[in-house]
Amino acid sequence: MEVMPLEDSEEEDSSDGTISGDESDEDTFMKFASEDLQQCALLAADSISDSFFPRTTQIILQCQRGKWVPRLREPRDLFGVSSSGPLSPTRWPYHCEVIDEKVHHIDWTPSYSEPVYIPTGLEEEPLYPNSSEDTVVYLAEDAYKEPCFVYSRVGGNRTSLKQPVGDRDNTLMFEARFESGNLQKVVKVADHEYLLTVRPDLFTNKHTQWYYFQVTNTQAGIVYRFTIINFTKPASLYSRGMRPLFYSEKEAKTHNIGWKRIGDQIKYYRNNPGQEGRHYFSLTWTFQFPHSKDTCYFAHCYPYTYTNLQEYLSSIHNDPVRSKFCKIRVLCHTIARNMVYVLTITTPSKDGDSRKRKAVILTARVHPGETNSSWIMKGFLDYILGGSRDAQLLRDTFVFKVVPMLNPDGVIVGNYRCSLAGQDLNRNYTSLLKKLFPSVWSTRNMIRR
């Protein structure tokens, strides 16, 4: 049961708006709360099982003639997504520049396994000395405006965005100021060669591994070389045949082809020491775009954004079948006030025996750059919410508590490992700092209950 003051009554209010006596609004409210609300049961989002998935009855407090008068309002769902309203808007650190354009990719499952790159032994290790003739064609400076998280706002920085630099002839145009995007700087070092730097996790100076950016003004038939120069991991799957991911909007529109692994002359190697003698590693590859004047994307792994999750949860909530045994609630809010969702999946109990069922806890995406965990979680949810006999048996036997994205803030801003606290959530499950690590704290509390 929820208690909430009602400033604007849904019914006609005969109150004169004054407070009689020496009691203030706050004193009257606190007196009422302490004396009478002890009998109200709070339906928590982390309860292990709720018989029939009940809704909350809310007590509305109306100020009438200077007194707080309680009344009951019809039960309301506590779900974080609703068919009657929009999805929760994505909140960013206030200083982050965000473009208005919404990035969308089609879902596509190729009929073949990912192609592995087989080294020829002739791959180059480009080392580019600094030159005054080099042209900076993209620079994102907003990430370093604050040393730590201050506050968030919907849509991030609302000031006029600085447009990427370029001569618009044969120069590629780059962009990464969108959800989960990551690209710090691009330097054009030759006609068709580009030196790229990825951004560290916000409010840290490390964890440079995740990249996801847009490329436009492409020309077909030309061999381009891209080199990312500030990776920090000595070992990489790129040394074992993994290729960068590529997406073409024209390929998606004309041939229904989505993300795929591409590239030639791929090599992962140690480059010159960086600041303070720290070693960095480079990833270089060559590629020919399939179309001219195309909008394309490169990524480290298959992107799965916070918006993708919200749209998926909304489809579950609006499904008359799946929503009967999958209820979606808000476990907590992140530092940036984005919602962390928790799903309760089980067959509704008719005789009150749901609490006798054992609970199974599943979580994903504690590290933002590990997007494969979100795709695995989606596959699990598709299965457990499906119509197979095994899925039905599992729902009849267990209560599944699922937190599909533990680190929405990190996912939104394009971090690789950390939250906006600048810390790895996977190393803070034992922390008592609820405000600093709300998602892992709430998950741990849910398990204990």
Automatic annotation (TrEMBL):
Using the record's annotation, list all stretches that form the Peptidase M14 domain: 302-449
Q: What is its main location?
A: cytoplasm
The record's section on InterPro entries has: Cytosolic_carboxypeptidase, Pepdidase_M14_N, Peptidase_M14
**Reactions this protein catalyses:** (L-glutamyl)(n+1)-gamma-L-glutamyl-L-glutamyl-[protein] + H2O = (L-glutamyl)(n)-gamma-L-glutamyl-L-glutamyl-[protein] + L-glutamate
Q: Does the keyword Cytoplasm apply?
A: no
Q: Which cofactor does it need?
A: Zn(2+)
Keywords attached to this Swiss-Prot or TrEMBL record, sorted alphabetically, are: Carboxypeptidase, Hydrolase, Metal-binding, Metalloprotease, Protease, Zinc
- Please state which protein family the record places this protein in: Belongs to the peptidase M14 family.
Put simply, this protein is called Cytosolic carboxypeptidase 3
Organism this protein belongs to: Phyllostomus discolor
Per the UniProt record, the lineage of the source organism begins with:
Eukaryota, Metazoa, Chordata, Craniata, Vertebrata
